Amino acid sequence: MTCDILITGTGMFAGRIALDLAATARDPVRVVIAGRNRTRLDWLRTAGNARAAMFGTPARFATQPIDLLEPEASEALIRAHRPRLVVQAASIQTSTVISDGGSRWTDLVAEGGLSATAVFQALISGRMAAAISALSPRTRLINCSFPDVVNGMITEMGHQVLCGTGNVAILSNVFEGARDGLPDGRLRVLAQYQCLAPWRLAPEARTGAFAPRVFVGDRELDDPFATFRQCRLTPEPAIEISGASGVTLMLALIAGRPWQGHVPGPNGLAGGYPVRLQGDRLALDLPAGVAEAEAIAWNDAFERRNGLTVSQGRACYHGRLRALLEEAGWPHAGGFDLAALEPVCQDMAMLRDRLMAQPSARPAA
To answer: What is the pTM of this model?
Structure first.
């Protein structure tokens, strides 16, 4: 049986995508949700079909129980469903790590940044990308697991990825919803995922080092923090926006309609950009006067200051994150070959387990 969209994962992020597809589809779309939590699968199928009936949309939902970490799980799903689009939303590291606390592991992520979790985020996504390359190269992949960084890892491993969801699209949609008083013109945003952090703070605590670049038409705003002072994100993952942000793109791709918006990691690029859908491909849609090389370098600079970059088949850590991994005694703090992702992930899991067993050294809030 073929399907239009295969969603892998049953967590809150995958659920938001599925249920928003159900409510907003204008053209027929067949969705299969795959994961190992049978109770959650049953609910998402039931709720998805109920919401489609509620809103009168031509979306239909089915499920497949499968442990995505089992060998050949991704290949089995591709063979069984031949999806036109895979939306990979499963990970062995929960996104709530950004707001959790209480252990040395959460300390490391809070101080070193989310790229501490990149190998966890890349594991299932990398396996799925490899399965698509081998069995169904026309299938498109949207990776929802830390796409600003992981999508570059996927392409460096020799596979294709369309884009991710969330991150830059969180900010672009927040700003679009708060643009009263701004002049007419398309709003375009350049933003790497690290640009989200200031918007979780009170307005007076936001600083320019992590400001996104925001354009109305082709004119860049001088101070986005001042222009959108009233906007604020939750400390937790903003799933109400991020999970939903890719839905219009998914439906446009399946229906063959044009689309423009914002995505992280288009075609494996680092960070987030304004884009246009051209057939089943994405192209950057930058303001006049901003060259592609400039936009890419601006996004890439965030991870070069503190995070993880990829080049020539190798991942390298930078800044405070590298120092913290070295202090923790992790053997790959100096970087690793992407071909060795699987054993590196096992080593990172051992580090996480060790640090999770140690209480936080950060002062209580």
So the answer is: 0.95
